[in-house]
Design a protein that fits this description.
- The chain is an alpha+beta fold.
- The protein has two domains: 2-160, Jelly Rolls (Sandwich); 171-269, Arc Repressor Mutant, subunit A (Orthogonal Bundle), CATH 1.10.10.
- 39% of the residues lie in helices and 21% in strands.
- The chain has eleven helices and nine strands.
- It has helices spanning 13-16, 100-106, 123-135, 143-160, 171-178, 186-192, 197-208, 212-230, 235-241, 247-258, 262-269; strands at 2-8, 21-30, 35-38, 43-56, 62-66, 69-73, 79-83, 89-97, 116-118.
- Strands 1, 2, 3, 4, 5, 6, 7, 8 and 9 form a nine-stranded antiparallel sheet that branches.
- Strand 4 (43-56) and strand 5 (62-66) form a beta hairpin.
- Helix 8 crosses helix 11 (262-269) and helix 9 packs across helix 10.
- The longest helix has 19 residues, at 212-230.
- It is globular and about 70 Å long.
- Residues 275-279 have low confidence and may be disordered.
Length: 295
């Protein structure tokens, strides 16, 4: 005995240009029928919230699936799977496609080489699937855009829920972020973690989808933008605050990556107003609370 609910969509060509579109959503539980063998032309994220079963991919190896878990179905890859015929499982699925899937795969959010991914929990992912299901009501004029935006959120939720990560994310990335503004080389960062530079590169690439240098640069430039926009610190002082002793090098690096010089960025984005509501440098860890409407 099983229960199933699903909806499928056909986004227009203009919606595909958004990068990601949702093609379908489903909620099922119980002793569901076996799926496949089959091959799809799009991606599917199958979230197993309870129960267990099995999965067989292109290599023909049968893998046990135990909730909470994620099954990745990727285009052109044969697959065959199903729940335990006695106990069944609780399943949510989202079909999606679009050019942004290539970038999400490069960044490690979609993992074709690891079709069965253990999860720590499925609460966030199931909440996103629930929003897609609610948006799927007939006559919703925002259907394609709303569900497409939710697919982006789903990929983030699934990445965050991976069981091989700590609850707050990868500890190596956390430590790099904490030390990002110190004038340390990649080799020195690696030594702090008892790793070789190659091991650190592998860890960061797996966790953030980029090199340690690019990961640190993104954090440094983000903070530099905040300081330029919200303070009157000289560019040289901003450079030192974010880990660069040579302000000329910082300015060249900022200009190359951001597309505009630090001084020009400040002219465009500056928020520092003498006598304004705040003279404090913004703390990214403690944003101000915006009060809600009075009741």
């Amino acid at each position: 005995m099983y229960h199933t609910w699903m909806r499928y969509f056909t986004p227009s060509p203009v919606h595909h240009r958004l990068g990601l579109v949702c093609l379908g959503v489903g909620l099922q539980h119980g002793a569901l029928p076996t799926v496949g063998p089959r091959t799809l032309d799009h991606h599917v994220a199958v979230v197993i919230g309870a129960g267990g079963g099995w999965f067989r991919g292109a290599d023909g190896e049968r893998v046990t699936v135990t909730a909470p878990a994620l099954i990745w179905l990727t285009p052109g890859v044969p697959h065959h799977y199903g729940p335990d015929p006695v106990t069944g499982w609780d399943e949510s699925f989202v079909d999606f496609t679009g050019p942004a899937t290539a970038t999400y795969t490069e960044l490690g959010y979609i993992e074709p080489e690891r079709p069965v991914v253990p999860l720590a929990d499925t609460a966030l992912a199931r909440a996103v699937v629930g929003r897609i299901a609610r948006a799927a009501r007939r006559g919703n004029p925002l259907l394609e855009v709303e569900t497409g935006a939710a697919v982006h959120e789903l990929l983030v939720a699934l990445r965050r829920a991976r069981a091989d990560l700590a609850p707050d994310g990868d500890p190596v990335l956390q430590a790099l972020a904490r030390d990002a503004f110190q004038p340390l080389s990649v080799a020195e960062h690696a030594a702090r973690h008892g790793m070789t530079p190659a091991e650190l590169r592998t860890a960061v690439r797996r966790g953030a989808g980029c090199s340690p240098k690019d990961y640190l640069l993104g954090i440094r430039l983000g903070r530099a933008k905040e300081l330029l926009a919200a303070t009157e610190l000289p560019v040289a002082a901003v450079a030192r605050r974010v880990g660069y002793d040579d302000p000329a090098y910082f300015s060249r690096l900022f200009t190359r990556r951001v597309g505009t010089a630090p001084v020009r960025f400040r002219e465009q984005q500056g928020r520092a107003v003498p006598g304004g509501w705040s003279s404090r440098i913004p703390d990214p860890e403690h944003p101000p609370t915006i009060p809600g409407p009075a009741t």
